[in-house]
Amino acid sequence: MAAETPNQTNGRGPKNNPMHSSKPHWTHGLNCFAAAARCGAKRRSGGFCQAPAMENGRCRMHGGASPGAPLGNRNALKHGQTTAAAQIGQRLLRDIIRNAALVVAAVDASAQETRRKRLALVALLKARPPAIHSDPDLHPASQEPDA
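The chain above was modelled as a monomer; its predicted structure follows.
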């Protein structure tokens, strides 16, 4: 194949090579920039802002990108603790803990009542004299000596 000359337009000539261009590479998109509408906001110096305007007619510095606060409470969704399902789960967990505390209190009260009854029974048994049985084998000390 014959050697190609730089003037041929096969994609490698001076028309498409940015190294052979007389303008810097960053100027290629400036045609759109130059044709864009201007902001027009009044500056403190009395002139007008010449920054390119957005769809709303102002630049990003004079009424631009932010249309206001985001809709909804997105902060609450970051961790999921305030969703309806999480609140139901927390409510159920609180009910379980409350019921468990009531069961523990009831068992504790029952144990205290049992202990109080046991102490009363022990005190009653200590205060009562031993019963005398008719069977002498049970109480040898109560037998009368044979003479």
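The chain has a mean pLDDT of 75.
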